[in-house]
Amino acid sequence: MKNYLILTATIIIALCKISFAQDAVNKVLIDQDLLLADYDFLLKTLGETHPNLYAYIPKDEFLEKTKSFRASINKPMSKTDFYKILYQTIALVKQGHTMVFGDAGYREFLKSGGLAFPFKISYNSDHIYVDENYSTHSDFVKGTEIIAVNRVPVNKIVDEFTPYLRVRPNGYIGGTLSYNWGGLLWLLYDFSDQFTMSYVLPNKHIIQTKTIDGVGYEQIKNKTKSSENKDFEFELDPERNTALLTLNTFQLDFDRYDSLLVQVFTEIQKNEIENLIIDVRKNKGGNGNLVGTLLNYLTDQPYCAGSESQVKTSEATKLCYTTHPVLVNAIEQARKAEGDNPEFLKLVDCFMEAEPGTITTFPKEIITPEENKLRFKGQLYVLTSKNTFSAGTLFSVQVKDNKLGTIVGEDTSDNPTMYACIMLFELPNTKINIQNSAQYSLRPGGFDDQRGVLPDFKVEPTYYDYINNYDRVMNYTYWLIDEGISN
Predict the structure, then answer these.
(1) How far apart are CA 56 and CA 93, in angstroms?
(2) What is the pLDDT of residue 16?
(3) Potential cystine with 233: which of 115, 216, 246, 293 (Cβ 3.0-4.6 Å)?
């Protein structure tokens, strides 16, 4: 997919990774003039690099609110407090690939001995639940509803957090809220070390209250590592004549990815599999060029990868793509996927050679699949959810709009008409890193309804599915296969 160089390099250093404990940071004040210079540089560079910064917010509203944020920088300020202004500024854009890197000191607070909120949370229908328990209090089982933290009701906490979150146009906040919950409790409420929890256990009706200790950095790190999803999983179900491929990222080395796909589709062909389920419900994104490599195993017909795209050239983007190791490597991986395709080379030139300020328009992109002896010719089912992001959304929409398979599950969180192809820049004085988009891409269907990819069969997991580890979406898909139902 030559016109989609990089959707996201998956450099996720969200609100949980920076420098000093909050007390220590707040004692180090940065001169007002330096902060104002950084804020002005932020707004200038966002405008110069992004093809349409005001896609989801009226320009007048953005300028009015950023003027107010700038006016609040009226004295020397800690880096922590400056981060709060940056988070709220970036949240106005409502685009998943535009973000602030850094956590205002939360990680270093934990590394220095501070204790964090002891649970990973899940957000569902305006309720907060325990998803994973890092503490020694085993009574807080998965699905325990949290009513309040330190006697602050969770609905008030969510309202307080929302202006700091990167919320997509569809308004779904669950993923980013869960990821940043502990860090924002520390940043906005200064909650740490001990937590008074008001909660309701699953299948109970009484609100209980208990004060428990927070947990340390290593404890969270070890439990998180043990529960991480694998990037790539494959299994066969011979009785159902079905194969299941789970892809949780497209951020893979091309040679490894290509080798894995050869192994998978060799097994599918050898076992004469007629149904293939590709699960991208937890796909966090990655290199969009790898999507085309997978699609080459799924269809022999020409398909539309995108209706139109525009790339904006800037000095900041050119500097980023020629010097930043992550993006230099991303181009290398993309070259392996695309080869010397003229349209791909034209796209690279947009980042490296074109005059700053140039907006290059690419027409509808039609892909003719290459010859592939391992191509799958059966029924394809793709599983999506609110946690399907970026390149995962791109894959889903190309299947959907080209009618290559059946989509089952929930709407994706990301809009498939997206602003992507990330670039990075650094604020000159505080050295805080910002990520922005340099490309606009219209989905293959040629429209933008500001929604995610809509499934052909909408299946939404319930709270009871969640607490009982019942996979409603997968079981519904098995039913579709057993009944011979497809889109």
Answers:
(1) 7
(2) 38
(3) 246
